Amino acid sequence: MAKEPVRVLVTGAAGQIGYALVPMIARGVMLGLDQPVIIHMLDIQPAAEALNGVKMELVDAAFPLLKGVVATTDVVDACTGVNIAVMVGGFPRKEGMERKDVMSKNVSIYKSQASALEKHAAANCKVLVVANPANTNALILKEFAPSIPEKNITCLTRLDHNRALGQISERLNVQVSDVKNVIIWGNHSSTQYPDVNHATVNTPSGEKPVRGLVKDDEWLNGEFITTVQQRGAAIIKARKLSSALSAASSACDHIRDWVLGTPEGTWVSMGVYSDGSYGVPAGLIYSFPVTCHSGEWKIVQGCVCSANETSSFFCILHCVFLTQSIAFWVGRLVSRLVNLVVQNSYSNYVLVWRKEICNPEYVA
Ligand SMILES: NC(=O)c1ccc[n+]([C@@H]2O[C@H](COP(=O)([O-])OP(=O)(O)OC[C@H]3O[C@@H](n4cnc5c(N)ncnc54)[C@H](O)[C@@H]3O)[C@@H](O)[C@H]2O)c1
After folding, report:
1. Mean pLDDT of 126-149
2. Where do the TM regions start and end (predicted)?
3. 114, 138, 156, 215: which could form a disulfide with 144 (CB 3.0–4.6 Å)?
4. Of all atoms in ligand 1, which is nearest to the CA of residue 50?
5. CATH 3.40.50.1000 fits 6-155, yes or no
6. Which CATH code fits 157-316?
């Protein structure tokens, strides 16, 4: 019997990742070749015409699995009934910009979309945040959609994971599908830590550790790490645009493994809320090695770092903690101020601004 269609929301669908992502979803790359889908696409009013063009192309491509398309600039229509939400919309990082520069632009976007998802999405909707700063946007979304279970809000670090697999496969001249179990720790940013200490390659004589095959710790501890960390910037430099097809493909990998499960003996990297594993404070959105089964992810335990790596680990932890704490409080303050401006008179606004922003205890 044919399966019921799954409703998949893509925000920012008129953008370059959206344009690469929606045909992949419609072809079954994300949810399987037997899973019909209805794609919901959200973008902002200035992109409405382009969004309609994407809808026309989806219709013209006559994808057999595609059972419907909703293209809208209305966040409620976009979120209604969705089972999976891929949050791509946002302000992109341009050449020369740091992720922190786009943080404040994205806080208000993620706040309104979080409450629409909370009120109108299907029960148990799974959320993947792609837009940068991805970990922080996911944290903002989690904060403003308190009834969506924390385990259902994730962010994309699979692109970095796949980049690490790609670098190892090129270096060893092996198929990328034979390399597995790299780990991306931390944020989707240049402070992440790509870790190959538990990674293996499938060879004709069995699974072998990557370190033993590469036999070049200097490269693994140096150029390999910086190449993965800086790959996004290298692509922006080359294309004058941020990565799109690889981001779209990784988003499909992330959701596919989350929903359909990771292969036995294989883990992947996902940005998920921390339960305190590896000393990462509970509640931060952090990239860990995870396995997935029956639609649930689980952090892989026991991937300990060597003494040398412990300092890098705590360094990235510090960065994640700092950026997410700032965003958390910026989000709270922005939200309170927006509500005040809308609901109260100017004098009230000034009064509360003084009380809440200028009072250091509030931020403490
Ligand atoms: N996590 C990752 O691995 C990863 C990788 C690559 C890119 N990214 C990020 O993904 C995001 C999208 O990248 P892109 O290249 O597609 O950018 P883009 O500029 O081509 O597209 C962004 C789209 O979002 C739309 N948008 C803006 N505000 C919106 C809102 N409030 N609601 C809905 N849509 C809105 C824009 O109109 C645009 O169509 C960026 O933040 C980028 O930095 C993340």
Report:
1. 93
2. none
3. 114
4. 39
5. no
6. 3.90.110.10
